[in-house]
Each structure stands twice: as C-alpha cells, then as structure tokens.
Amino acid sequence: MASQREVKTRIASFRNIQKITRAMEAVSAARLRRAEQRIAALRPYADALRRMARQAARDAGAEASQLPLLAQHEQEHNVGILLVTADRGLAGAFNSQIIRTGLRLASDLSSEGRQPVWYASGRRGVSSLTFRGNTLQGAYSGFTDRPSYADARGIADDLVAGYIDGKLDRVEVIYNGYVSPLTQHVTRETLLPIAEATVLGGEEEEEGRAQGPRALVEYEPEADELLRVLLPDYVEISLYRALLESTASEHGARMTAMRSASENAGELIEDLALEMNRARQAEITEEIMEVVAGAESLV
After folding, report:
1. Edge-to-edge, what's the strand order for the sheet holding 136-140?
2. How many other CB atoms are there within 10 angstroms of residue 6's CB atom?
C-alpha cells in the first residue's frame, strides 16, 4: 500500500490536471459560441450567392454547362482529397475520424484504378499523412482556431487551378459537420465539379418559380460571364463553410473531451482520498501496535 505522502502527491497532481482541463473546457465553450455566431452570419451571404448563381445559370442556358467548373471530366484518373483537421489535439476522436475516412476513401479509389491526390488543412492532418508516407500537394495550417475567408480562398485557388488544368478530375472534401457541442458528423462532399443540380436547383424550386412571378434581369456583362465569376466564389464560400463547421466541431469536441477528463480526474481524486484514509488508518494501527508491544515488554 502506498504511503500517505505518495497518495497526497498523486491527489495534488490530479487536482492540477483537473484545473487545466476545466480551464480548457471554459476556453473551448467561449470559442464555440463565437464559431456558432460566424456560421450564422455566413448563411445569408451563402444563400444570396447561391440564388445569384442559380439566376445567372438559368439565363445563361446551355452555355452554363460549358463552364470548366461545371463540366465533368470524361475520365477520372486523379481525385483530390482535402482533409479538414485541426492544428491541435486533445479533442477526442475529432482528428482521427477524419484521417480514417480519408484513408478509407483513398484505398477505395486505388482499388478502382484511380490515384488519390492529397491536400490537408490543419497540422494534425498534415503530420499524419506525412508520417504515413503520403505526398501532399497542398498543406495548410495555422488558422484552424479562427479561419478567415482568405484562408478558404487560398485553398480554393489551388483546387480550382488543379481542376481546370486537368491535374485533378474530381475533388472531395472531408470535414466534421457541426450539429451540436456533443454531436459532430463526418461529412464528405464533392467540391468539384460543381453539380449542375446544386446551381440550377431541384424540381421543387422549379415548380415554385413556375407558380410565382419571375423578375426580368438585365446582365452586364452577359449571364455566362457573370456565372464564370460567381462559380469560383461559390467554391470559396463552400470551403469557408466547411472550415467554420470544422472549427465549431473542434471546439465542441474539445469542450466535451475536457469535461469528461475533469469528471474522470474528480473520480480518481475521490478514489485516492479513500486510499489515503486507509493508509492513514493503517499507519495509526501500526503505531498503536508498536505502543502496545512496547508496553507489554516493560511488564
């Protein structure tokens, strides 16, 4: 049985850990609230951009399908995979589940005769893929706590250039979609080519437009030229949304992980307190036995 001093040292150590985990939980909770606000602020802009792109695509007609970002490549040889991870750990399975999903996708592509081309956002994804011997065509880090639109634009520029130049035939993005602080879902989206259904809208929206009045729009420049400008912006805003959702998911996962760590530390402290009490009782009993033995030897 450990001595009282050893148990006290361990209790003090766990209490220090508990203080750290509680502080990290509070920081993550504050950052999560800010991330949720940024997601809410982005939605009106993203919806307006999508409506503009749909309007321009409808008026551009058949010319819209000829745009590079809407055109599907006849054959898919190289598939870009962008993993959106975090710069830091201590967030449970937040990073590992993204990496596992990406590796599983790469394995499926390889079995189909396609070549995965790796891109990664966040130091955890970059280091993990590099450790496994994968060559990264794009590595982006240092901003996962608070991503900016410029960060999303930088990633989008590389992916769009690769797709237009024919180096990539498809681009898949894997990130943690934010649902709640306790729930984050691994989300996989095809970023490029942009699906025409995404831009043009579904059947329900077509019916709604047929029933209601349609505004007359004059374009300067022409609708297809405007759409050519809007589509890269659409890619950027899609990536920015993925980065923001990943950030919110990271803070939610870390808050949950730190709360669980604090609770576990509390349970260990209680167990060690009981152990210390038993050690104290054992020492007292031993001292009493020594006193009794000494008294008997004097008789």
Report:
1. 136-140, 115-121, 78-84, 170-180, 183-192
2. 14
Helix/strand/coil for 61: helix
Q: Is 44 exposed, middle or buried (0-12, 13-18, 19+ CB in 10 A)?
A: exposed
| Composition of the chain by helix, strand, coil, percent to 5 | 65, 15, 20
State both tokens at 62.
């058949």
Task: Give the CATH H-level superfamily of domain 28-255.
Answer: ATP synthase, F1 complex, gamma subunit (3.40.1380.10)
CA atoms of 192 and 195, how far apart (whole Å): 8
- pTM, whole model, 2 decimals? 0.82
* Cβ contacts of 46 within 8 Å, gap of 6 or more: 237, 241
Three-class SS state of 112: coil
List, for residues 120-133, the tens digit of each pLDDT value.
Answer: 999 999 999 999 99
Q: Stretch 138-143: mean pLDDT, rounded?
A: 94
Q: What is the largest CA-CA distance in the chain?
A: 116
Count of other CB atoms within 10 angstroms of residue 14: 18
Per residue, the 3-state secondary structure of 140-198, as one string, reads ECCCCCCCCHHHHHHHHHHHHHHHHCCCCCEEEEEEEEEEECCEEEEEEEEEECCCHHH
Nearest to 155 by CA among 79, 102, 101, 84: 84
Task: Please confirm whether the linkage preceding 181 is cis (ω < 30° from 0).
Answer: no
Backbone angles phi, psi at 79, to 5 degrees: -115, 120
